[in-house]
Every structure is written in C-alpha cells, then in structure tokens.
Write a structure and sequence with these properties.
887 residues, alpha/beta, five-stranded parallel sheet, 53% helix, elongated, disordered N terminus
C-alpha cells in the first residue's frame, strides 16, 4: 500500500513503539473481559472468540515487543477486523449479537496512529464492508448460539460504550501525538530562526572583522601609490591593490548571498556612465587575464547610450563575476565583453552585455542548474579552479532586481557566452562628434587579434583618423614603405614576441618612419619593456578608449588630453581685512576644513587664530578679546553650541559668533540662535556667504547693526545664504541673485562648469555626468576659486586622502556602542568630503550621522558596506585626479 502523504513524524522511536505496545496490550485485556461476559450469558462457544482474540493479541505483542516483528501489527489489525465479524455471524447477525461488529471500527482508528492516512482509510473501508456483511447475515446464515434477550440489550449498551470509549482513547492519543508534533515543529522553527539570526550576526561581525583590516590595507596601499615610486614599485603596489580588491569581492559575495537569502538586496539607481563603468570593470580583471596570457578585449557599439539610470555598482558586480569566471575557465585564447543595445521580453529598451570566452565550455545537462546556489559544473571544478559556486546565483538575482535577465549558451570544449540585459532607463544617447585634434591623422596597428583590430579601428575612426590594420612584420614594413604618411604606430607585444622589438628597430631606422611615435601594446604595466627600445610609450591591456585617446593626444596633439580648466577670477575681496579689520578665532576640528577656512580668511586679508575644539575656544577667549568667532557646531570634548552658551553666560567682552556647520535645517539654525550665535554659514563654505556674514558682524560691532547678545537670547539672523552677496567690487547685488561675469543667472541656466543653479548654488548632487565616487568637478573648481591656488587645492586633497581612512576607522570603532562618537565622526567625514567634492561619500556619512542622532548604533551593516564602497570609489577618484593633475 502506497501513500502520497509522508508518514506521520513520531511513528518511529520511543513514542511510536509505546503507542503500538499499549494498543496490543489493551486489545488482549478487552478480549479476556468480553469472553467472561459471554460465559456468564450461557454462550460458552461465543466466549472462545474473544479469548482466542486475547491469545493472538498477546502473541503479536510479544513478537512486536521482543522480536521486533513489524508485521505483527498488520496481523493484529486483521484479527481485530475478522474476529468481531465472525462472532457476529456466530450469534445470528448484527442485531442478535448486540452490535459486537462495531469493535471492528478500532483497527481503522488505530491505523491512524501507526500508518499514513491512505492506509488508515483502507482499514476503514474494510470495516464498512464487514459491517454490511454482518447486518445482512440473518438472511442466509443460521445462528450457532443465541444470547438471551436481556443480555442482547446489555451487550448493545456495553459494545456501544466500549467502542465509544476506545474511540475516545484513540482520538486522545492522536491529539496528544499531534500536539507533540506541533510543539516539536514550533521548537524546530524557533531554533531555525535563532540559527538564521545567529548566522546573519556572524556574517555581519565577520564582515566587519575582515573589512576593517582590509580597509586599512587598501587605504595604506592607496596612500603608498600616491608617493614617488619607480615603475616596478608601482606595479607591486597595483598588484597588492588588485589582490585586496579580489579578497574584498569574496567577502562581499558571502555577505550578498546572506542578503539574498533574507531578501535584503538593495538597489540604488543612479545615473551611470557606461563607458567608465566598463573600463573600471576591466581594470579589475586585467591582472587576472595578464597572468594567464589571455587577451581581454571589449567592444561598444556606436548606438550604446552614454549613460543610463541603474545601480552601476550592481552591474559592475555582475560583470566582474562573469569576467572572472571567463578568465578562470579559459586556458588560451581570449575573453571578450561586448556591449550593444537590445530589448527585454516586454519590449523595453535594454543595454546588452555579452561575456564570451574560449574556455572549457559547459555540458548541456548542467545548464538548467547553472545559476543555482553552491552549484559547480562537476565536483572537480571547485578543486581545480576554486570558487564557492555563489557568483552566478548572485548575478542572476541582481540582474532580476535591476529589471533585467541573464542567460547562457555554451559548447563543451569551445567556450561559453553569458548575456545580461539591463533596462536602458533615462538613456543619454551619444551626440554628434566634435572636432578632434586627431582628425586626418594616420594610425597603423600591428596585431593579429581580430577583436582588438576592430576595437582600435572603431576608436580611431570615431576620432576622424585613418586606421591601417596589419598582422605581421612583413605587412607592417610593406605598408610603411607604400603609405605616404603614418603618424603613429601601435605594435602588439603579446603575439609578436621578439618580432615586436625587431619591427620597432626597423621602423625607427626607416626613411619615412624614423620620427614616428612607436607605442607597445602589452598585458604588463612595466615600462622596463620599452627601456631602452625605440618605443616611446606603453599601452596596457585591456585596450580602453580613454587610455588610447589620452596617449594619442599626448603624442600627436602635443599636449595632455586632460588640461586644467582656467576659470574666471574668484569674486574675493582681498582688501576686506583692511577695510573691515577684526580679530577672528576659527573653531574647527576637521583638518581639511581647518586648512580651507584659514586659507579663505588669509585671502580676505585676515590673520586668524585656530582652535581645534570648544575647550580650546574657552581657553582662547579667556586670554584674548576676539571680535568674531567662526564656530564649528560639531567638535570633540566640547561642541560649538555649548561653547557659545558658556561665552554668553560668562559676561564681559562678547564676540560676534557665527555658526559654521554642514547641518542646514531650520532646527539646526534655531539651535544656533538659542545658544547665542548671531550668524550662520553652511558647509561647504561659499565665499559670498562668508563675506556677507563677516560684513554683518563688522557693521554690528561698530554700531551700524545689532550688538552681540549677552545671553542666549540672540537676535534672529537670517541664514547666510539669504544675506546680500557682495559682487566683485564689494557692493551687494540688488536682489541677491547668483551672477556669472556680472550678469544675473536665471533659474536652471547653466554656469561656467556646466551645472545648473539651484538656490544660488551649483547643483552638485546627482550630476548626470558624474559616475559614482567621482569627485564633483564643480566643487573642485569652486575650491580653486575660493583659494585662488590650484597647488593649495592639491594639498587639501592630499590631506583629505590621509584623513579619510582615519575617519572611517573611527566611525567603525564607534559602531555598536558609542552613538555620540559615531555622530561626531560621521559629521566630520560628511563635512570634509563635501568640501572637496566627494559627494557620494558625504551622502553616506550624512546617513550614518542621522542614524547616530536617533541613537542607533547597531544594524548598520548596509551603511557600513556602502561606506566602504564610497571610500574605495573616492580613493580611486583621488588617485585618478592625482595622475591627471587637473581640476
């Protein structure tokens, strides 16, 4: 007998055994009692039926209890059905026997305790059939013995009562058994929930413990990369960086899988520069491909949007997973990334990423389960190639969360192709090509990889160049001899080997090519390859459009590709300190902001004094009567609000106190007023606001405005951004509108750096052409305008690069136990990051500060993960800017 329902848990083991033993013992005892009653009723032959039943029940009990014969249970159910019906027939039928056949109901009820439901139903059907037979028996079978009428009535009552009592006992047993099962299930569920919670906490703690030293490794290595290194040392530093990033990616995979299980994956859609995303992704994979001497190439179709709105970090995570696998499972040949346009199943426009390799391929039978968690194609894969089997499962989940999909096709022994489609929301399409200094130049490319040929040919033609592609030394020399003009030659090192050097020497000695720049294409970022050789420069794989363009601009256009943009003269009144002399105390704990504030005041003509916290402020005002205090609100030891209150409460000379803070809400403004401050300047500092606040202070101190309040009841000062802004000649503008070159700017009209005006300020956040983590160029240009010194800005950025990892470590150290320290350090990072244009990092720090203000110091794993991401992206942006040397 089979059953679609699983056997009832608890049927095996001590509980099930005791149930079965009790049933057998009870049946044997009932048979002895009933046999005695039949003997008293004067029907001795009828007594033999229940006594025989008792003997068989005892035999089955012994066989089951001491011999472990499971079939004894089936035998017991059979005799429990047959004997009551046999006794009914012996006594003349159902009515004449007093309903003794009702006892045949017990086997089907007992079966509920020891068998699945379908088996128990079978016994119940058998009971119904036998009862029908016993009811029909008087018509065709004579009685062997007859019970007296009084005994028939008594047996009716006894049988009904006995069967009812036995049924109740069976139901009670069944209820108790189910209650135990429910309790066991509830306990198991609670244990599972505890285990899940413990796992999540463990993963979060493990992530923190692993990320903390990793952050230090990456941070210190990043700082090392900004020092003077020779090419070989720089290569070693880059190797450390790449390895650390791979380890960090593994940690992220484990955490991401945990989030995927808990349904806590978060998507953060932002405007994403696709080309920057692709090139930064290839930078991560390039060292892996270089180690295996595999070509890593990519191609972007011309109609691919410049940018789309999506979570670039998650798209990069998918591509890194797929490209890493492609390189891992490819021993020779190439790994390529193709980017094109297409459509999703619902017809929505999509960007299509195709990762192809020439590796081992995937068996067709493994494709349906390829994206399952912890799934490898075969057990030997993990031993030979490593990996957890999580990457593809995470990639599939991410693609679906982004609104897209992922698929694969593969041929065993030939390679695989993974296709990812992501919705092209808010796509910004490429505009018309502007005039390029590279137009009409001739570039010869010597390599035998068709993909790289198409890639370089597409780059060159996009810049208006003529591109000549050849595959061998002979073809290159013949082309150089026949071609009237060649402006630059790119030679592949990986496939030509020694011929690359030989070709370079022959071209350098050629009549027409002796002064043509020769550039070596190599997978190794080691300039020792071209020293001393005729090559003038090195282009490392993967070949990226930006790298090729910068290199060609340097060699052919006679200037770096990215030059420092010279901005208009900052609207600083450098004579303000002479016209409105005041002694100024600057209270600021953040090193970056200290340097910026002191520099601004210096340019305005003031020689200010610096205090690092509220305690130092109190010491300073006890010895010197300052006219103005520029007071940071968030400081260690004693914050600015408390320092202002103490100054107002002490009596005597009262300085004009201007709050300087990154918190610009009405509540923050009111808190400053209540503490006795008269002015309010928000960070990042705008020179017009600072000048207006200082000018208001001077007028008030010299009798043309309000006097400083001696108590906390300070006059209500308008926010600095609403004060009259001086123009270049020092006079206030008529209506306070932002101006550019002396002309009012209408709402939304672009200013010099291409950013729209919002509330009188450049709209830095969410700039559509700023990839995640990139420094906001508008903010950097504003720094140049404020300080008037690009070298000074470089110094500020260098100090910020040093201060950033320290602040991140202090934030991490405060998580879990110290809300005030977490709030203070997050505020400091938010302020200094925004001052230097690290807007994404500033945004994360602001959210951490908000959580800390609410007293939350736990459950911040997601924000800490995003903090690491923003810190890494900002670090890379700082390094990139240091290499480019441009604002």
């Amino acid at each position: 007998m089979t059953d679609s329902r699983a056997a009832v848990p608890g049927n095996e083991g001590t509980f099930g055994d005791s149930v079965r033993s009790d049933l057998l013992a009870a049946m044997a005892a009932a048979g002895v009692l009933w046999g005695g009653l039949y003997l008293l009723a004067g029907t001795p032959y009828a007594a033999a039926w229940p006594w025989g039943y008792s003997l068989l029940s005892l035999a089955n009990w012994w066989l089951y209890r001491y011999r472990g014969v499971k079939r004894a249970l089936d035998a017991q159910l059979v005799i429990s059905l047959v004997i009551p019906v046999g006794l009914t027939l012996h006594l003349g039928g159902f009515e004449a026997s007093g309903g003794v056949a009702l006892w045949a109901l017990l086997p089907s009820m007992a079966a509920l305790l020891v068998y699945p439901l379908r088996t128990a139903a079978f016994w119940f059907v058998a009971y119904i059939v036998l009862v029908v037979v016993s009811v029909s028996s008087p018509g065709f079978l004579p009685a062997r013995e007859a019970l007296p009428d009084g005994w028939v009535t008594g047996f009716w009552l006894g049988n009904v009562a006995g069967v009812t009592a036995a049924a109740w006992l069976v139901i009670a047993r069944y209820t108790v058994q189910n209650a135990r099962l429910v309790a066991t299930e509830r306990e198991a569920r609670l244990l599972a929930e505890d285990a899940t919670r413990a796992k999540s906490e463990f993963l979060a703690n493990m992530s923190h413990e692993l990320r903390t030293p990793m952050n230090a490794v990456i941070g210190m290595n990043g700082l090392l990369a900004t020092t003077d290194l020779d090419p070989e040392q720089r290569e070693y530093v880059q190797a450390v960086h790449n390895s650390a990033e791979v380890l960090l990616a593994t940690i992220n995979d484990v955490l991401d899988f945990s989030k995927m299980e808990a349904g806590r994956f978060e998507i953060d859609p932002r405007t994403t520069d696709l080309r920057e995303l692709i090139e930064s992704t290839l930078d991560v994979i390039a060292p892996l491909a270089s180690q295996k001497h595999i070509d890593l190439v990519y191609h972007i179709e011309e109609d691919v949007p410049l940018s789309i709105t999506t979570d670039g970090h998650r798209v990069r995570q998918i591509l890194v997973n797929l490209l890493t696998n492609a390189v891992k499972f490819t021993e020779r040949g190439e790994v390529s990334l193709g980017i094109s346009t297409g459509a999703l199943e619902d017809g929505q426009a999509a960007v299509v990423f195709e990762v192809k390799d020439t590796g081992i391929g995937i068996p067709e039978k493994a494709l349906p389960t390829l994206f399952d968690s912890f799934r490898q194609v075969d057990p030997s894969t993990s031993r030979r190639y490593g990996g957890t089997g999580l990457g593809l499962a995470i990639s599939k989940n991410l693609a679906e969360l982004l609104g897209g999909d992922i698929s694969v096709r593969s041929t065993l022994g030939e390679g695989s192709c993974f296709t990812v489609r992501i919705p092209a929301r808010d796509a910004v399409l490429p505009g018309p090509e502007l005039h390029s200094p590279l137009e009409e130049r001739v570039m010869m490319v010597v390599l035998d990889n068709p993909t790289d040929q198409r890639l370089l040919e597409g780059f060159g033609r996009g810049w208006g160049m003529e591109v000549l592609c050849v595959e061998s030394m002979r073809e290159a020399l013949e082309t150089a001899e026949k071609q009237r003009r060649i402006d630059v030659v790119l030679i592949d090192h990986q496939h030509m080997r020694g011929d690359a050097m030989g070709l370079a020497q022959r071209l350098a000695a050629g009549r027409r090519t002796h002064d043509v720049p020769l550039i070596l294409i190599s997978t190794l970022a080691n300039r020792a390859l071209i020293e001393p050789t005729p090559f003038c420069d090195l282009l490392t794989r993967p070949i990226k459009q930006s790298s090729v363009h910068d290199l060609l601009m340097t060699r052919l256009a006679g200037r770096p590709a990215r030059q420092i943009a010279h901005q208009r003269t900052p609207t600083l009144d450098t004579t303000m300190g002479e016209r409105q002399p005041m002694s100024i105390l600057v209270a600021e704990d953040n090193a970056t902001n200290q340097r910026l504030m002191m520099r601004l005041l210096e340019r305005l003509g003031y020689d200010a004094t610096l205090a690092a916290d509220g305690v130092e402020v109190m010491d300073a005002v006890s010895t010197t009567d300052y006219d103005v205090i520029l007071m940071d609100v968030q400081m260690p030891r004693m914050h600015g609000l408390e320092a202002a209150r103490r100054i107002r409460a002490r009596g005597g000379h009262q300085p004009w106190i201007i709050a300087v803070t990154a918190n610009a809400t009405p509540d923050d403004h009111q808190a400053a007023i209540d503490a006795g401050m008269q002015g309010y300047v928000t960070k990042p500092i705008r020179v017009e606001e600072l000048m207006a606040a200082l000018s208001t202070a001077y007028e008030s101190l010299h009798g043309t405005g309000e006097e400083p309040a001696a108590t906390g009841e300070a006059p209500t000062a308008a926010p600095a951004q609403q004060e009259a802004r001086p123009t270049q000649d020092g006079q206030p503008a008529d209506d306070g509108q932002p101006t550019q070159d002396g002309q009012p700017i209408e709402d939304g009209q672009p200013i010099e750096d291409g950013q729209p005006i919002q509330d009188g300020q450049p709209a830095q956040d969410g700039s559509p052409d700023r990839p995640y983590g990139q420094l906001d160029r508008g903010a950097l240009r504003q720094l140049v305008e404020l300080t008037g010194d690009e070298a000074f800005v470089d110094t500020v950025l260098s100090e910020f690069a040093t201060e950033m990892p320290r602040l991140v470590e202090e934030i991490r150290a405060a998580v879990g136990h110290d809300a005030e320290a977490l709030r203070r350090h997050a505020h400091s990072l938010k302020s200094s990051a925004r001052s230097v244009g690290a807007l994404d990092l500033s945004d994360v720090a602001a959210r951490l500060e908000d959580r800390a203000k609410g007293g939350q110091v736990t459950g911040l794993e997601d924000l800490l993960e995003e903090l690491d991401r923003a810190t890494g992206a900002t670090r890379e942006a700082l390094k990139r800017r240091d290499r480019e040397g441009a604002v």
